[in-house]
Amino acid sequence: MTRHVQALYHRPATKEAQLALPALAEALLAAGLPGVVDAVPAYRSLYVEYDPEGTSADELRAWLAQVSVEGTAQAQREIKLPVVYDGADLPEVAAHAGLSVAEVIELHSEPTYRVRALGFVAGFPFMETTPELLQVPRRATPRAAVPPHSLAVANAQTGIYPVTAPGGWNLLGRTLVPVYDPHRAEPFLLRPGDTVRFVPQADGEPLAEPSPRLLWPDTPAFPALRVHKAGALGLLVDRGRTGQGRFGLVRSGPLDAQAADIAQALLGNPPGAALLELHLTGPVLDVLGAGAIACTGLGLRAAVNGEALPPYSSRAVQAGDRVTFSPTGQGRVSYLAVSGGFETLPFLGSASTDLKAGLGRPLRAGDVLGYAARPPETHFARQFLPYPVTQHREVVQLRLLPVADGETMPADALAALCAAPFRLQDLDRMAARLSGSPFPGGEISSEACPVGTVQVLPGGRPLILLNDKGTLGGYRRPARVHPDDLPLLVQAMPGSAIAFVTGG
Length: 504
Hints:
By secondary structure, the chain is an alpha+beta fold. The protein has four domains: 6-66, 2-Layer Sandwich (Gyrase A, domain 2); 78-200, Cyclophilin-like (Cyclophilin, Beta Barrel); 223-383, no CATH class; 395-502, Cyclophilin-like (Cyclophilin), CATH 2.40.100.10. The chain is 13% helix and 33% strand. It has eight helices and 32 strands. The chain has a seven-stranded mixed beta sheet with strand order 6-5-12-4-11-8-9.
């Protein structure tokens, strides 16, 4: 039922061609080629995702080879950004360089930087070139939360964290102008090809994080549900935000795409309709208008007025009904769909929540969600049988594949991954974090990669990247998990054994 995109890398050899990668990405997305899902430029590569039912790797490589955009990069603008140099890592960077803090500030603010790509999170600019004395490696263990608007360096790169996000770069200070704001007519201040000058400031009021941009209307045309209690985490999602990775926007979409697709099918909804992803504990919802609901996934069991719904089933509801959920202990994620999907206010083509980018927010008590259209007057209860393959299991076996078409999986990495099971420490929408024997990690040149990629930090800790991963990353990634196995992973409970095997 669920189709999976595939990926390839275009890696030109010359510096001129590498500088033109953002223009090549724009040209590819504008060409209207069937099957192209996204194109994300980095320093030395263009990452392309595609639907194999629309095109093939060979067809895409032929198009990329015959299109010349060298020398056609966007016209450079010079942007001056005021910066307060008061970052937490400024003393360490100064000690590494053998300079005083004042000398570091002077040295870092002297050059003109060029924006090579936007990525990792929305609007994060990857800029070159940091002065050689200040080229310090990423931190061995990333911070769980870097403050918004932080100016940071890693090796030859300088970047700005527009929003709170985990990160391993070294913090030098903070900007006094936001480089990303989803409420602006032009959300992204910087674009690839721009040049940037940092202007040191003695002080300045810290900028607040951008407030979330809501993805559903306050007053829906056809009220469906009112949130009585919010539960742990309820998010609006659709199939995801495609074609926007070059701005650092994540795909988002459902973690368990199989369960989400089944919920839509039970109601006869379009595949791209919006639904709710519910984590760990569910909300309490009051029905405001007659329609139908479907609940799927392993984490929760739904009930209407105290009467439990069979797993993976749908039923009609009436105004005044109350929908509740109870954890099953057999999984972590479930989906609630309504007739025709929820009414939304899309941002760049999607109503999927992107918490790091301030697009949408979790459900809150008092929120009212509406049907996208007036529901049909009758609905026949349905159930999906047999249950899908994402049933709970003690050992979760995940098949490994190359990261992209034409890539290889290093033998040493495969041996280390498959030698013994790991344990799932925790999992969120960004990544599944594993514990086990130390694994050879390290840094690479930042570039994009698919959902399901196994990434290894310098400290040796493996992650499996999920839907809200950074769009660009600079850590070793020897393989990816087969897309059909990702539902097994995202439904696994903490402490589950994770066993990697080769072969798709």
